[in-house]
Write a structure and sequence with these properties.
The protein has 485 residues and is an alpha+beta fold. The protein folds into 3 domains: 2-119 and 265-392, no CATH class; 129-186, no CATH class; 413-481, Homeodomain-like (Arc Repressor Mutant, subunit A, Orthogonal Bundle), CATH 1.10.10.60. It has 23 helices and 10 strands. The strands form 4 sheets. It has a 4-stranded mixed sheet with strand order 5-4-7-8, with helices on one face. Strands 1-6 form a two-stranded antiparallel sheet. A hairpin with an 8-residue loop joins strand 9 and strand 10 (423-424). Helix 20 (425-437) packs across helix 22 and helix 21 packs across helix 22 (463-472). 31% of the residues are buried.
Length: 485
């Protein structure tokens, strides 16, 4: 009976924090085209997968799925790990496997839809790691000193995600007390990608372990106290020191596959890519409706022939090698299906939340964009802020007003701290541009005059802020705009 239970499908769903988690996170970060390419690759490599003609495989997956248990704080066991076939963990290959990014330029023609935009001239360059971290930083309510110190950290992070400068030296150069400076460091370390600004491998992995969706204290314990022993594969020593069974230690080591020793490599400003929206917002009879772009995304299911083979395994003597192969491919197939569904559902939830929080934008345009930060949407849909960041980066929504990266809708408020009303930075740019477009060219508005005009509408921003956004718009100063009569 025990042998039969080991082959039962319900155990495959206990792989909550194994390398399959890395696949789920990877799918969440991919563009629409990259995702379809990844699915096509998996379909070639995994005979378990086939395209379904039905509308959804959700019921099929739910039939096999079982709930997971969250480990207690004093329980070092964590979720059960079924796949114990690989005892050897090659640390060199582990680190090297993260050297490449998943970005791939788009070279095909756009798909045909009656209401789809023309993408031939629509291109995008990815953010650098520093730009991506700085964008998240500006969602936070920070003082000028806090912001400047946090920026000094970000600008000293290398391409692999590690902090190059000694944090104590940065603190000495900055204007913050040490405790507050370390708070800024921890804030950045929990941005997407989680683990950036770490000072060494141990800290990088530990930050990611804390952020895993299911708490596994044993993994954290091993990273803190026995990382060198893990690298040397000295499981007996770890077992002797901790009193924990060797098999459970090997399971915890296997979980480490889902952690990224070089988190910075997941963000790269690769070559320019053509844009394909992941989602649409359509105006149907005066009501805005969110619709996923499922063009080119096959609906997958488990091959019926292999289903029968799995059922027969429980009734016949097992061939260990064949059984392990079938189980491995089954787990991979189920996780791919679940990961695709999770990616699409998360993008849809985020877009619906954006639509709910920015109704005036979709009715009246960019001038009515409201301040909105990652935390607002994360709290509304019940996910971590880093998840919202992953979903919004390089994902595009096509709306009646045009096509926008989902990141576009997130803006920290400006002006509220000065006693006025908060305004999104994109809205502020438009107001500045409008005032300059309509100014008397012989007496152009100075930055201070623009600030004074906006102040009458309770938009209270400093002259230097006006100058900053004017320069971002590539507009010359008033003295250089003045036209001679």
């Amino acid at each position: 009976m025990a042998q039969k239970m080991s082959l039962n499908l319900k155990q495959s769903q206990n792989l909550v924090i194994t390398p399959q988690l890395r696949q789920a996170i990877k799918l969440l970060t991919l563009t629409h085209l990259q995702m379809t390419q990844e699915i096509a690759k998996e379909m070639v490599e995994n005979p378990m997968l086939e395209e379904s003609e039905s509308m959804s495989t959700r019921e099929e997956i739910a039939k096999d799925e079982r709930g997971t248990k969250e480990a207690q704080s004093d329980d070092f066991s964590g979720p059960e790990i079924v796949d114990k076939g690989k005892d050897d963990f090659d640390w060199d290959k582990y680190a090297d496997s993260f050297n490449s990014t998943s970005s791939t330029p788009y070279t095909k023609e756009s798909f045909s839809k009656d209401d789809a935009p023309n993408y031939e001239n629509m291109v995008s360059r990815g953010d650098t790691l520093q730009e991506h971290l700085e964008w998240q930083l500006r969602m936070e309510e920070l003082s000028e000193d806090e912001l400047n110190f946090a920026l000094s950290i970000i600008h000293n992070i290398n391409d692999e995600g590690y902090l190059d400068e000694n944090i104590e030296e940065l603190i000495a150069k900055g204007k913050l007390e040490r405790d507050l400076a370390l708070d800024m460091l921890h804030l950045i370390q929990n941005f997407d990608p989680v683990g950036c600004a770490a000072r060494d491998l141990r800290e990088c992995l530990l930050i990611q372990a804390y952020a895993l969706p299911d708490h596994v204290p044993l993994v954290e314990l091993l990273i803190k106290n026995h990382l060198d022993d893990l690298i040397q594969k000295d499981f007996k020593k770890i077992s002797k020191d901790t009193g924990i069974d060797i098999n459970r230690i090997k399971d915890a080591e296997y979980i480490l596959h889902s952690l990224n020793p070089k988190p910075g490599r997941t963000v790269s400003a690769e070559a320019t890519q053509y844009v394909i929206p992941d989602i649409y917002i359509k105006d149907i009879g005066g009501e805005f409706v969110v619709k996923l772009n499922d063009e080119g995304v096959p609906k997958l299911k488990i091959n019926n022939l292999y289903k029968k083979l799995i059922k027969q395994e429980g009734k016949t003597p097992a061939n260990d090698e064949a059984s392990e192969y079938v189980q491995e491919k089954l787990r991979a197939a189920l996780w791919l299906i679940k990961s695709i569904e999770n990616r699409q559902k998360t993008i849809e939830k985020v877009t619906n939340a954006i639509l709910k929080n920015q109704p005036e934008f979709f009715k009246k345009g960019a001038a009515h964009l409201k301040p909105m930060i990652l935390k607002d949407i994360a709290n509304e849909i019940g996910v971590h802020e880093s998840t919202v960041s992953r979903v919004t980066k390089d994902k595009y929504v096509h709306t009646p007003l045009g096509t926008f990266e989902l990141k576009y809708f997130f803006n920290a408020g400006i002006g509220g701290k000065n006693g006025g009303i908060d305004i999104a930075n994109e809205s502020l740019k438009l107001k500045i541009k409008e005032l300059i477009d309509n100014e008397d060219k012989k007496k152009p508005l100075s930055d201070q005059k623009i600030a004074d005009i906006l102040s009458k509408s309770d938009i209270k921003v400093a002259r230097r802020t006006i100058a900053k956004y004017r320069e971002a718009l590539n507009i010359l100063s008033s003295s250089k705009r003045k036209q001679k009569s």
